[in-house]
Design brief:
With 176 residues, the protein is mainly alpha-helical. It has helices at 2-15, 31-35, 48-66, 73-101, 106-129, 134-138, 140-147, 149-167, 169-175.
Length: 176
Amino acid sequence: MAAAVLLVERIRLAEDSGYVPSCSINPVLSCGSVMESAQASLLGFPNPVIGVAAFPVVLATGAALLGGAGLARWYWGGLQAGVTLGLVFVGWLIFQSLYRIGALCPYCMVVWAVVLPTFWFVTLRNMRAGVFGHRIVEHRGVAALHAWRAPVLLAAYLVVLTLIGVRFWSYWSRLL
């Protein structure tokens, strides 16, 4: 949903250079600054198009699983490739937002918040199901990762929040 809203906002901004996106709240939380950057169209088209195309695959996978479908190993391997690329892309976007653009897009941050657990839980599922091979399934580290799945995910969120807090501390501290 956030990717779709972001795409609509991006289209409105392209149509009217004076348009102020709904997610441009202040100098730090400013979708407009992010959308107008070169990083916002990495492959030559607006980045939200990737999300609008990719997230339905994740949703369809979840719906299929809820419906009792058994998905082939090749499907899980393809989904793993997709979520891994998504995580790498989001990591790059986080870096760009914090250290190159100097602004945060709230809708983008929602996408970040969804990609992290999507990658994590697909990866854990694939490790336990043998998608990466049977040596991984039997490795005791996989059981430990599964047991600690929530704290590891929480730690990832805390790292991102800490990076945001540190990067924009001068702005946040003036508001206090």
